[in-house]
Amino acid sequence: MTSSIDNTAAAAAKARENVIIFDTTMRDGEQSPGASMSLDEKLELAKILEEMGVDVIEAGFPIASNGDFEAVREIAKIVKTSTIAGLCRAHQVDIDRCAEALKPAARGRIHVVIATSDLHMKHKLQMEPEQVLETITRSVAHARNLRDDVEWSAEDATRSDRQFLRRAVEAAIRAGATTINLPDTVGYTYPSEYADLFGWMTQNVEGADRVIFSTHCHNDLGLAVANSLAGVQGGARQVECAINGLGERAGNAALEEIVMALKVRADRLPFQTRIDSTHITRASRYVSAITGFAVQYNKAIVGKNAFAHESGIHQDGMLKNRETYEIMTPESVGQAPSTLVMGKHSGSHAFRAKLKDLGYELGQNALKEAFGRFKDLADRKKHVYDDDIIALVDDALARGGERIRVTHLRVIAGTEGQSADLTLEIDGIEKKATSTGDGPVDAVFNAIREIVPHEAALRLFQVHAVTEGTDAQAQVSVRLEEDGRIATGQAADTDTMTASAKAYVNALNNLMARKQKSAPEPLVAGQF
Ligand code: KIV
Ligand code: ZN
């Protein structure tokens, strides 16, 4: 006979199940306008996600472009412990291309999606519901012939008729799907409604016990994280999310918020993830640096102010006991308390230790380059703050592998007019121009356009001071758009004009890289 204590222990152990973390920063995240990533950046991000313990990395949408195909294939070659997923529509050609890209993967997943709401079936797919069911059966069975791990997603699940959705899910399970994803594609659902959907599906779907149910929530009403957690409460055991909440429109559920909510409130949701949360800050900074999407100061978990205590009462409480105002430590998300003060006498070992504290691990060459830039900055600036070092490293990361580089800039500004003398190095060859403009930044950008003629329109020019003081570095973001392609560039420098020139050139490099990816089958973002 088992004692009641044993029973309680067994029940608790059973309840402490795992939640699978599925990261879609490189797929849904990259679908957000302007958030393009190069192949090298994706490879680096994949390594960070794997080290962090992400279970499934959705590396791209192989049919969408050669670039996406290559990204999925190259990531599949290097990642060993995480599963690599590729997205495809319910077409044989999509699925074949995805399977091809996943060939090198130790663990690969084909992710098939088709819409199930009346609205999407009628207007977008222009298919009858019965045709959609047949397509699900055919496409999932085809995918399952190519890979054992097949996820099926019901796009717009939260606005789908529940009885029809049940039939669709059952068709997918019968055809061999191993994960069933019920996305809140348009960020419309409500926590109690989403929890109920999973509760109902796990109870009513035939074969529900053979699959893992998954959430995928968009943040249009700011409810993506709350909805995802409610989905877990309802029975989902996989959460799809993205670093910094990157994703279509208002974004996806933020990975860092999901992971920390499950960790900090394990008393309410007794589920574990495999994530080592101390890697969160590093991942967040890296994604912000390569996409040029700044993280808002008050963003939960990874915002600059997430652990800052300004008011006297709070500071007093913190000094007496950190738990008065801190529900988790900065260290638990990879923000080590800063102990090292950096200045022009700091050596490379101290610099490397500081970078580690800040969540960066650079290779030998990148470290050497960053250290040289740090020394230059320390010569120009009295105090080098952590934020200066972050801006400097992000700047170097953004510039890796550029074909065009700014080598010289001289700007004349003031009441008598503005002009810029600029030298760019293009594939190793120097080219010069002198231009005037309506203001010094305009003069600099005109000079760039003279040297590299292009049609791209400037969609964003944003400057912010990294720290306080008149010697602060300026961090500049530039967004360019050409033929529907959007690329972002970033740069930081104590000289605002130099930062502006470098940010523009960075965006131009990214745009050229994007242009090189030709799409075998044109695809509108978000159209499955
Ligand atoms: O939002 C959505 O429905 C998606 C699917 C492809 C999973 O991104
Ligand atoms: Zn999505």
Helical residue percent?
40-55%
Beta percentage is 15-25%
List all distinct small molecules, including ions and cofactors, that are bound in this structure.
Answer: 3-methyl-2-oxobutanoic acid, zinc ion
Mean pLDDT: 89
- Which fold name corresponds to the CATH topology of the largest domain? TIM Barrel
Q: If strands are numbered along the chain, what order do they take across the biggest sheet?
A: 1-2-3-4-5-6-7-8
Ordered list of secondary-structure elements with their pairings:
Blueprint (H helix, E strand, L loop, with lengths): L3 H12 L4 E4 L1 H5 L9 H14 L3 E5 L5 H13 L4 E7 L2 H11 L5 E8 L2 H8 L3 H18 L3 E6 L6 H13 L4 E6 L6 H14 L7 E6 L6 H11 L3 E4 L13 H10 L15 H12 L20 H9 L27 H10 L6 H17 L5 H14 L4 E9 L6 E8 L2 E8 L3 H12 L5 E9 L8 E9 L2 E9 L2 H20 L13
Parallel strand pairs: 1-2, 1-8, 2-3, 3-4, 4-5, 5-6, 6-7, 7-8
Antiparallel strand pairs: 9-10, 10-11, 12-13, 13-14
Helix pairs in contact: 3-4, 3-12, 4-5, 5-7, 7-8, 9-10, 12-16, 15-16, 17-18
The protein binds 3-methyl-2-oxobutanoic acid and zinc ion.
The site of 3-methyl-2-oxobutanoic acid has 11 residues, from strand 5 and strand 6.
